# Entry
Amino acid sequence: MKKILYIMIILIIAASYFTPTILAAPASKNMEAVWMATVFNIDFPGTKNDITAQKNEYIEKLDKMKAIGINTVVVQVRPKADALYKSDINPWSDVLTGIQGKDPGYDPLAFMIEETHKRDMAFHAWLNPFRITTSGTDLSTLSENHPARLNPNWVISYNNSLYYNPELQEVKNHIIFTVEEIIRNYKVDAIHFDDYFYPSNYPLPQGEEKDGSVANSRIQHINDMVQGVSAAIKSINSNVLFGISPMGIWKNNISDPTGSETSGSQSYYTVYADTRTWIKSQWIDYVVPQIYWETGNKAADYETLVKWWSNEVKGTNVDLYIGHGIYKDAVVNEIDKQLRINQKYSEVNGSFYYGMKNLLANTAGCIEKILVINHTSPLESSRSNMANVLINSSPQVKTGTITASILNIRGGNGLQYTILTKVPRGTKVTILNSQPGWYNVKLTNGKTGWASADYVTVIDQPRKIQ
# Structure
């Protein structure tokens, strides 16, 4: 019965929404977007080495997102200095086949753009400019044609990961050429960078201060890259947007009186991202600060940051959207409250949601909450009813098996978090969520925590949540 109902809903949605191929992007105002992460196969693709399965998966997720009012998908097409598209610059990504550099047998980016535009939705190509590996420093593990392997002098190592050195002009050029290749060959509506620039907390030389000459030069190197990418995009196609999603805090006011009244990690010092300069210089078309905190948070209150970012874009042509971390219970539980706060500030033109799994699983009833705030017409109410049936008819999660002899289960997604318990090899876990390098898992005794993704083998066959 559920299968028949599911098919009927798909047909209704197709009839209501499906339009001829659209090449122009929707207006940048009132953007409702979702990030689709591909690193670690977090959101896509769920199956490797299967063209049909990957295409069907993308279409299914796209239809679901369309049904709940999403008008923009932000797909990670360059997760680790590799590509989910045909490139003469970067190797094929291993998320497609399991082997970096292996041709998947089709062009995922061309396919995804076509299907997205058919539904009158915008497609933003999400790139990580400097990251090469998420774990490991052995260049020989990269594909033979990987630029990092061919140019080891471009590479820096930190915290057991590899990155392109932002200080080198060759690296800046490489990033610019990568963006140019995408824009020339694909009808993307935007190029999108997230919050990865210098490695997080990359140490300064001994004796250097956080506002000293070395730190300032790092800020300038990132500014040079952003300005160069912006100029390249506009020289090729001025209709393609350039957006960046930085950490939610630029500077705390204890570091700079013009910073926000917060006490969290500062992107200016943590990754050397001077978002203020990008906005004031209008090198970017939109900014999506990742305000992944709840209202009343002592270190970073949600509305305090929305107000601060609203003032930053005021008087510029840079559009402001808010990034919501709905993978966090404290955020998803109050997503309707956050959206109402956004409506108080005229500079806020929409929202981006992370993670996609939480949205499609309707965690904490987030779909209904978002629809109630954003959509009020009878037609939209009808669509929301269809969306709720569609989403709730088949919520799914994945399971995994622990491969380490003994694995620490921590209280958060990082080695700095407290060890909650230890589990032996062969332990079965339910994977509730993902962050780069980590899985949020549920143990058989009902306890939850975070496990290193390097020691969890994911079982491809999902099961329904009971």
About this structure: The first strand starts at residue 31 and ends at 36. Residues 1-27, 389-395, 461-466 have pLDDT under 50 and may be disordered. The chain has two domains: 2-395, 397-464.
